[in-house]
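Hi everyone, sorry if this is the wrong subforum. Our group has a chain we'd like a structural model of before ordering constructs, and none of us has done structure prediction before. Sequence below.
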Amino acid sequence: MADQKKYKILIVDDDKFLLDMYAVKFKNSGFEVDLAQGALEGLEKLRNNENKPDGILLDMVMPGMDGVDFLTAVKKDKLAEKSSMIVLTNQEQSGETDKTKGFGISGYIIKATTVPSGVVEDVRKILEKK
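Answer:
Right subforum, don't worry. Here is the predicted structure as C-alpha coordinates:
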Protein backbone atom coordinates (compact mmCIF):
# COMPACT_ATOMS: atom_id res chain seq x y z
CA MET A 1 0.00 0.00 0.00
CA ALA A 2 2.94 2.34 0.46
CA ASP A 3 3.20 2.81 -3.31
CA GLN A 4 -0.49 3.69 -3.73
CA LYS A 5 -1.62 7.30 -4.00
CA LYS A 6 -3.45 8.53 -0.92
CA TYR A 7 -6.85 9.60 -2.18
CA LYS A 8 -9.16 11.95 -0.31
CA ILE A 9 -12.80 10.86 -0.26
CA LEU A 10 -15.95 12.49 1.05
CA ILE A 11 -18.66 10.00 2.03
CA VAL A 12 -22.20 11.43 2.07
CA ASP A 13 -24.88 9.23 3.66
CA ASP A 14 -27.63 9.72 6.23
CA ASP A 15 -26.86 6.40 7.96
CA LYS A 16 -24.36 7.04 10.78
CA PHE A 17 -23.54 3.33 11.15
CA LEU A 18 -22.64 3.04 7.44
CA LEU A 19 -20.63 6.27 7.55
CA ASP A 20 -18.58 4.98 10.48
CA MET A 21 -18.10 1.53 8.96
CA TYR A 22 -17.01 2.89 5.56
CA ALA A 23 -14.74 5.44 7.27
CA VAL A 24 -12.86 2.61 8.99
CA LYS A 25 -12.66 0.53 5.79
CA PHE A 26 -11.37 3.42 3.68
CA LYS A 27 -8.91 4.68 6.33
CA ASN A 28 -7.53 1.15 6.77
CA SER A 29 -6.97 1.07 3.00
CA GLY A 30 -4.94 4.28 3.03
CA PHE A 31 -7.61 6.84 2.12
CA GLU A 32 -8.01 10.24 3.74
CA VAL A 33 -11.70 10.27 4.74
CA ASP A 34 -14.19 13.05 5.42
CA LEU A 35 -17.78 12.26 6.40
CA ALA A 36 -21.05 14.11 5.89
CA GLN A 37 -24.22 12.88 7.55
CA GLY A 38 -26.66 13.91 4.85
CA ALA A 39 -26.53 15.94 1.65
CA LEU A 40 -26.79 19.36 3.33
CA GLU A 41 -23.72 18.66 5.46
CA GLY A 42 -21.94 17.37 2.34
CA LEU A 43 -22.65 20.61 0.47
CA GLU A 44 -21.50 22.65 3.46
CA LYS A 45 -18.21 20.74 3.58
CA LEU A 46 -17.63 21.24 -0.15
CA ARG A 47 -18.41 24.96 0.11
CA ASN A 48 -16.15 25.52 3.13
CA ASN A 49 -13.15 23.38 2.22
CA GLU A 50 -10.58 24.50 -0.33
CA ASN A 51 -9.03 21.02 -0.43
CA LYS A 52 -11.62 19.22 -2.58
CA PRO A 53 -11.87 15.43 -2.40
CA ASP A 54 -10.65 13.18 -5.20
CA GLY A 55 -13.92 11.28 -4.93
CA ILE A 56 -17.37 11.75 -3.45
CA LEU A 57 -19.20 8.58 -2.43
CA LEU A 58 -22.87 9.49 -2.34
CA ASP A 59 -26.02 7.76 -1.13
CA MET A 60 -29.09 8.58 -3.25
CA VAL A 61 -31.90 8.15 -0.71
CA MET A 62 -31.57 10.61 2.15
CA PRO A 63 -34.14 12.69 4.05
CA GLY A 64 -34.41 16.40 3.35
CA MET A 65 -32.16 16.50 0.30
CA ASP A 66 -31.63 13.39 -1.80
CA GLY A 67 -28.67 12.46 -3.95
CA VAL A 68 -30.07 13.97 -7.15
CA ASP A 69 -30.64 17.30 -5.38
CA PHE A 70 -27.09 17.11 -4.00
CA LEU A 71 -25.67 16.42 -7.46
CA THR A 72 -27.71 19.27 -8.92
CA ALA A 73 -26.37 21.73 -6.32
CA VAL A 74 -22.77 20.52 -6.71
CA LYS A 75 -22.93 20.91 -10.49
CA LYS A 76 -24.76 24.26 -10.42
CA ASP A 77 -22.34 25.80 -7.91
CA LYS A 78 -19.25 24.07 -9.39
CA LEU A 79 -18.30 22.71 -5.97
CA ALA A 80 -16.36 19.62 -7.06
CA GLU A 81 -15.50 19.86 -10.74
CA LYS A 82 -12.40 17.66 -10.41
CA SER A 83 -13.92 15.13 -8.01
CA SER A 84 -15.17 11.76 -9.21
CA MET A 85 -18.81 11.27 -8.24
CA ILE A 86 -19.59 7.71 -7.17
CA VAL A 87 -23.13 6.71 -6.28
CA LEU A 88 -23.47 4.15 -3.46
CA THR A 89 -27.08 3.08 -3.11
CA ASN A 90 -29.56 0.25 -2.82
CA GLN A 91 -31.60 1.71 -5.67
CA GLU A 92 -30.88 -0.56 -8.62
CA GLN A 93 -33.89 0.34 -10.73
CA SER A 94 -32.87 1.77 -14.09
CA GLY A 95 -35.00 4.84 -13.37
CA GLU A 96 -32.69 5.69 -10.48
CA THR A 97 -29.56 5.31 -12.58
CA ASP A 98 -31.17 7.35 -15.36
CA LYS A 99 -31.69 10.25 -12.94
CA THR A 100 -27.93 10.49 -12.39
CA LYS A 101 -26.84 10.28 -16.05
CA GLY A 102 -26.45 14.03 -16.66
CA PHE A 103 -24.09 14.49 -13.74
CA GLY A 104 -20.99 12.71 -15.04
CA ILE A 105 -21.16 9.92 -12.49
CA SER A 106 -17.91 7.93 -12.47
CA GLY A 107 -19.35 4.82 -10.84
CA TYR A 108 -22.51 3.27 -9.50
CA ILE A 109 -22.15 0.77 -6.64
CA ILE A 110 -25.08 -1.20 -5.19
CA LYS A 111 -24.73 -1.49 -1.38
CA ALA A 112 -26.72 -4.71 -1.06
CA THR A 113 -24.58 -6.66 -3.52
CA THR A 114 -21.12 -5.27 -2.72
CA VAL A 115 -19.21 -6.04 0.47
CA PRO A 116 -17.52 -3.01 2.11
CA SER A 117 -14.02 -4.10 1.06
CA GLY A 118 -15.38 -4.41 -2.50
CA VAL A 119 -16.69 -0.85 -2.30
CA VAL A 120 -13.23 0.36 -1.29
CA GLU A 121 -11.60 -1.48 -4.19
CA ASP A 122 -14.23 -0.28 -6.68
CA VAL A 123 -13.69 3.31 -5.55
CA ARG A 124 -9.90 2.94 -5.81
CA LYS A 125 -10.21 1.59 -9.36
CA ILE A 126 -12.49 4.47 -10.35
CA LEU A 127 -10.10 7.06 -8.91
CA GLU A 128 -7.06 5.44 -10.53
CA LYS A 129 -8.72 5.78 -13.96
CA LYS A 130 -9.06 9.52 -13.49
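For your construct planning: The chain has a mean pLDDT of 90. The first strand starts at residue 8 and ends at 13.
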